[in-house]
Design brief:
The strands form three sheets. Strands 1, 2, 3, 4, 5, 6, 11, 12 and 13 form a nine-stranded mixed beta sheet that branches. A two-stranded antiparallel ribbon has the order 7-8. It is α/β, with parallel strands linked by helices and 344 residues long. It contains ten helices and 13 strands. The protein folds into two domains: 6-222, Spore Coat Polysaccharide Biosynthesis Protein SpsA, Chain A (Alpha-Beta Complex), CATH 3.90.550; 229-311. The chain starts with 5 loop residues before the first strand and ends in an 18-residue tail after the last helix.
Amino acid sequence: MNKLTTAVVILNWNGKHLLERFLPGVIEHTPGDVELVVADNASLDGSADYLRDCHPGVRIISLDRNYGYAGGYNRALRQVDADVYILLNSDIEVRGDWITGCMEIFESDTRVAAVQPKILSLDRPGYFEYAGAAGGFIDKYGYPFCRGRIFSTIERDKGQYDQNSEVFWASGAALFVRSDAFNIAGCFDEGFFAHMEEIDLCWRLNNMGYRIVNCCTSSVFHLGGASLSATDPQKTFLNFRNGLWMMAKNLARPQLFRLLPVRMLLDGVAVLRFLAMGRLGDLAAVVKAYFVFFGSCKRVRRQSSRWQLGLPASMYPGSIVVDYFIKGRKRFYELSRSDSTASR
């Protein structure tokens, strides 16, 4: 088998300060045969000038406006020729050999479409990071979680997930993805703009029979919150709306009609929690998400007709909301082995 070609593509929007901090390390720890690309979403902070002046060996793809994560990457990756794209957030620190382990997984199994390294916290050494941890899962009601992070509970990395494992989704913060699988699956859904577009992509890949794998021998360190803070109501809106869109796009009609009412009930509980906590901005964001969802549901369902639909075997068959809030299972390893794909 010929060696797979690889390109690291960093999407940037007004992130000059992040490029100054993290890009030198990416250059230092990336092999010379791997192309380094920065796709710039029409930044106004001098990012492109900084790259041209300080890192002339890095290829710049300049976009004419801010297309968000999904649209920005879709447009940039059309201009990148590689067997495997490595999509890397601009606030990721890499160390040592962070690429080889992930690439060996692709080379050993052509069914693997995406790989994620362990994502650890840059600010809390020894802990996983919220956006990906040791690989992502999703329950049948559309709620995502990770090995190492369920809702707001983030585990310390004690080696409990130090084995390569099939997961449901790989984080867009550090996403290794086969270019042919990415394109066959239809790329990212640009309607999402930001948040959960990688989960939606992985759901399609799962439905198409591909595998998603977490690589335990590779680690990166994520600053997090560089685009939207966790307390920003806009992030709440995107997460709820995009989660509903994922269900509408990727579930067969009988499954959607059966599962959506339960999802609505669970989201209603979230609204009551926001009210009790005085987070009225988040409450309004959830209500807005539902108005947008129901206004666009028919269009989203029409779009879904292009793909295979269903509940893949790698999906968590229980309710992570019930497990976490009612049964008190706050950590991934506490989930019932009969309910978790971790034992497969």
